Each structure stands twice: as C-alpha cells, then as structure tokens.
Structure prediction request, 160 residues.
Amino acid sequence: MTFSPALEERFAQMLRAYPEGRQRSAVVPMLIYAQDEVGSITPELIEEVARRCGVDPLQVDEVVGYYSMLHRRPMGKYHVQVCTNISCMLVGGEQLYEHARKTLGIGHKEVTPDGRFSLEEVECMGACSWAPAVQINYDFHHFVTPEKLDQLIDSLRKAQ
Prediction:
C-alpha cells in the first residue's frame, strides 16, 4: 500500500522515534494519520501498519476495535462528535446530540447522503469544564448550544 510522500515521511520519522523493538508504539498514530489520508481503516491498511510496525495484523485489528476514533468505513467530510458523558449530559449534551440528529437527519455513525457530514455520540472529550462539547474533525467547540451548533453546521454547509 502506498501513501502520499508527506505521509511516508511522517511514518518514517515516527518509526525512527521509537527504540528498536518498540515500533509497535507507532500503531495508533499511524492508523490515525493513514485514516485521514485513506478515509477509513481497511483490511489492507491494517496489514500495512502491522508490517511496518512489526506486529501481527490481529493486534492492529484489535486496536482498531478498541479506539472509537478509528473507523472501518468512511465518515463524512465533517465528522461531528457530540459528547453525552456526565458533565456534558448535565448541561444539555443529550439534547444537543438529539438536535444534531434532527438537524443532520442521521444517527450515530451515519453519514449524510451527500457524504458531507457524519455524526457520532461520544463518551468523553476531556472538556468537562467547558461542557457541552462538540468536536468537528479536529476542532473543539465548547459551551455549545443548539443555536451555536446550527451556526457551525451552516458555515460548513456553505464551505466548499
């Protein structure tokens, strides 16, 4: 499996950063960066990361199953994650998630027909002091209200 030259260089730097015999520590970051480029975690990607890190593909597959930020099928261009854990729940996180479901017309880990948005209910983003929290791709948004979420989604709909 081949990747862009930039990703190949990033992988090489990552593997050099770990001592001999510890390259398995690069599995999670390699999966995240590759997922960003490829779109999802495919069986071929699992095989490739396993080969590069010197581990069994089953071990990589187990990592994919454990981490919720790794997806076996493509998510939308804008992946909207709404936290509904206790701190967010207490200040409207569940209502915010329901609002996102209605606004986007999709449910948990579903993708809009145009492929622009996907939605995920998540447990904890580590932003309890700024609840309710939403993450869109790698951008965090704090103290999110339904109105603020509508503004965020509208701005993304207008973006190309």
